[in-house]
Write a structure and sequence with these properties.
Elements: E1 5-7, E2 11-19, E3 26-31, E4 34-38, H1 47-60, E5 67-71, E6 77-83, H2 87-94
Parallel strand pairs: 2-4
Antiparallel strand pairs: 1-2, 2-6, 3-4, 5-6
Length: 98
């Protein structure tokens, strides 16, 4: 399986499965065609979403302002928008096949 990354005018979008309240923050790998990420932050008041965005920004080497939740704000399954990168760069920086 590979991460399904869709390009748009400003960057890319891809699916993420978030597991809030985990023992530690980590990018687990692929879950189907989505990226599975565990965050220690609880799912209250958007804290898990904030942590997810900051983790992805660090992993993808983009400024935190360039990562946003495009859909699924209150769901464990989200679509993430990342500006300033392409699909090949996303897969390479996350260490995923591509």
């Amino acid at each position: 399986m590979t991460l399904a990354v869709a390009a748009d005018a400003t960057g890319v979008r891809f699916a993420v499965k978030v597991v809030p309240g985990a023992a530690r923050d980590r990018i687990v790998g692929l879950l189907g065609s989505a990226l599975k990420v565990q965050v220690a932050a609880p799912p209250e008041n958007g804290r898990a979403n904030e942590r997810l965005c900051s983790m992805l920004a660090a992993a993808l080497k983009v400024p935190p302002r360039d990562v946003a939740i495009a859909s699924g704000q209150s769901s464990p399954r989200k679509t993430v928008q990342v500006r300033g990168v392409d699909a090949t760069t996303v897969r390479a920086r996350l260490g995923l096949p591509g």
